[in-house]
Amino acid sequence: MQTFLSIEKVRFGEKLNYQITVPEELLDHQIPRFLLQPLVENSILHGTSKLPGSGLVQVVISKNEDILMLEVIDNGVPFAETLQFGYGLKGVQEKVKRLGGPGSFFEIVSEPSEQSKRVIIRLTCV
To answer: Which of 57, 26, 110 has its CA nearest to residue 118?
Structure first.
């Protein structure tokens, strides 16, 4: 994820800032391929790149007991009232269903009062 965001930072310059937060104990934890990249890509393309000023994309990974939580948060343009899942979101949703185990889910949360929107994936760790 670091490499992808570094490339996007070169592309967008000062219009894009990013932050990745992963506790040290989770640095070696494996996350299924291409689970986060479509979410971050959408966050930049449909959110922060539309801002007149700079945008912030945050990737936060945490774990609570046997649940791994992956969050992509940005301060970009809010989600539409009727959010449509494109190819990227559908792919992530399917991957979570197939790989995530029981209790896993994919959730999109818009929090306009906080000037942010958030995409959350919860995966049951085996």
So the answer is: 110
- pTM for this predicted structure: 0.87
Helix (H) or strand (E) holding 61: strand 55-64
pLDDT of residue 1: 86
Are 79 and 117 in contact, with CB atoms under 8 Å apart?
yes
Show the domains of the chain with their CATH numbers. 2-124 (3.30.565.10)
Q: Per-residue pLDDT tens for 30-49? A: 887 788 999 999 899 988 99
Listed residue (29, 26, 36, 6) closest to 18, CA to CA: 6
Residue 124: strand pairing partners: 67
